Amino acid sequence: MNSTARQNIFKNVLFVLILLSLYVLQSVPGLFAIYGVKPFLTIPAAIAIAMLEGEFSGGIYGAVAGLLCDMGGLLLFGYNGLVTAACCIAAGLFVIHLIRCNIFAFLLFSIFTMLLRGAAEYFFAYGMWNHQDVSRIFLNVTLPAALYSVIAGIPLFFLLRWMHRRFPVPEGDEV
Amino acid sequence: MNDFVKTFKFKVLIALLCVMLGFMVMSVYTGGTSSFFSQIVSIITLPAQRFSSSVSNSVSGFFDRFLDAGETYRQNELMREEINELRKRLVDYDKVKHENEQLRKISGIQQILPDPTFEPASVIARDPSDPFSSFTIDKGTLNDVSYLDPVITDEGLVGYVSQVGLTTAKVVTILDININIGAYSSATRDVGIVTGTVDLAIQGLCRMEYIPRDSEIEKGNIILTSGGEIYPKDIIIGTVEEVKTSASGVSVVTVIRPAAQIQTVKDVVVVTSFAGQGGGGGAS
Predict the structure, then answer these.
(1) I need a labelling partner for B268 at 20 to 30 A (CA). Which of A100, B13, B99, B185 fits?
(2) Domain residue extents for chain B
(3) Is the interface score ipTM higher than 0.90?
(4) A161 vs chain B: nearest CA distance in angstroms?
């Protein structure tokens, strides 16, 4: 095993540990809560990984990040995994073929992913069941959580970009 | 782009998305049981979650002491008044209790129902996207926790176990719009259904519906569970905050402040078996 392969394994182990740590942090009761709104940390991190490492790694880490969110939620297990993996694959492909990998692109992909998963979750869990005043959930919970997650993801993007530069992608997998 | 569609990686990614879809279909059929992946990751992350939630609780508890000093003082004054009132009632209670024991001896009634069993648990995670304060506890099937077991605190009812894994379980609270609990007022004996609404859940409140229109229920009345297959009888749900007529005008609706601190609760107790649970003799 050459040093590049070793570095790649080490980097991926770090990514997994970061995702697990972020899952623990995002699920700790009360931690990072502002007026009862808490951020999703694993999803923006997966988006950043997808943009930096490409669509293949991004898809896998997106699925893992989404499944971690599914573990804490009450919706169907696999829902967040599916949406996040699809968005991460798209983000990876966009960065390869269409736009540059920078903080603005990260914000764009993150807000799109968070709004997509939030809106679909709102629709399937509450919107379609005709409960009273249910739109307040979207305004008071879904939207603030999406915005908070994107803002909380900014330092994660810079941390993961530093790691990506420290441990470059092996040849053949480059973005 | 066309080249990418033909690659092996593309096929792997499509398979990955199919697996996610498979998880969703599987969770429809497994219902109250956590998926295999979820159980494995729960076991890995449980120690870290326990540690981080205990650190978080200690730090927030330390600062809350200073931040909530005014509120604590106000509550202290209210508690003093309540204690004085309860002391007066205690005299009547002792008298009634004594009479009750005497009557039981006379009529030969025996306690034949089995004692409930409890499993204490800690809240280790809260879902960031759930407006009804659902949470995850650090006990699962290994600790005899089962699907639909009621969850309480020393203050009152919290909710029920909606999904259970080996070492963790998810709890739906009484603020949830999909919950329905048979309940009655201790003062008037009027029965109704306790459920959640979106606007009340945001304020940490719930409501009791379908109370008879001629009911004399009023603010301050204590609401208890009426018992059944999911909840034991006489668990405190909360106190009536407001009484109003329903939109249709045929019944009364009350706003209830839960006795348990649903949105901030850190430690709970799971009632793993009680008389009448699941329609059986108590064991779950």
Answers:
(1) B185
(2) 1-29, 68-107, 117-275
(3) no
(4) 23
